[in-house]
Amino acid sequence: MRVISGKARGKKLVAPAGMHTRPVTDQIKEALFSSWQFRINGARFLDCFAGSGSMGIEAISRNASYTVFIDNDNEANKIIHQNLKACHFDSNYKVLKEDVFQAFNYLDSKKESFDIIYMDPPYTVDEIFIPVMEAISKTNLLKNDGILAIRTKKEKEMPNRFNHLVKTKQKKYGISMVHFYELEEIKEVENKKN
């Protein structure tokens, strides 16, 4: 696992031991960041269930202005800090070692908002996907023109909407599916223009 592009290009990243973190593959990471290439420079990025921190670190490497990592696992938190240090990143990020539901409430109470939110819940906890989407849809964490992506098993169906979050597309990558959501108000404006 490595940083694909930007300031830390080619840096090797360590992943936490065990299967529950399932590091994102370079193929998925490259595909997602290619689709975000015009959004990422100067963006605020939220990496939920961060694991190794690979996605958030890629965002920092590609000039995101601010990145927040959320993971409540002790080992994952150590690895995130280790990987950030290895990439010589020492500012413009925050690592939250807490449950995502608490982290969402905390960030929302601080009026934090993000251009890109990436969520990668553990496949082994199938029942978390809907509640985590419902929880984030009740916050103001996604900016008006932002995008949220959540990775699931390829077989998993995800609803087309959660409150004001509307699914705009889904893409299959190997054994994974990534579902993309945006705020409904933006979609309505775009539809009126067309």
List keywords for this structure.
single chain, 31% helix, 6 helices, 194 residues, alpha/beta
Could you say which structural class the secondary elements and strand pairing correspond to?
alpha/beta
* Count of alpha and pi helical runs: 6
Over all CA atoms, what is the radius of gyration? 16 Å
Order of helical and strand elements: HEHEHEHEHEEEEH
Strand proportion, as a percent range, falls in 25-35%
Strand order of the largest sheet: 3-2-1-4-5-8-7-6
Tell me the major beta sheet: 8 strands, mixed
Helical percentage: 25-40%
Give the full name of the CATH homologous superfamily: Vaccinia Virus protein VP39
* CATH 2nd-level architecture: 3-Layer(aba) Sandwich
Mean pLDDT: 90
Task: Give the overall shape, derived from the CA principal axes.
Answer: globular
Number of strands: 8
Broad CATH class = Alpha Beta
CATH topology: Rossmann fold
Distance between the termini: 42 Å
What is the number of independent domains? 1
**Spans of at least 5 consecutive residues with low confidence:** none
Short description:
Helix content is 31%, strand content 26%. The chain has helices at residues 26-35, 54-61, 74-86, 100-109, 129-137, 184-193; strands spanning 44-48, 66-70, 93-96, 114-119, 142-153, 161-162, 165-173, 176-183.
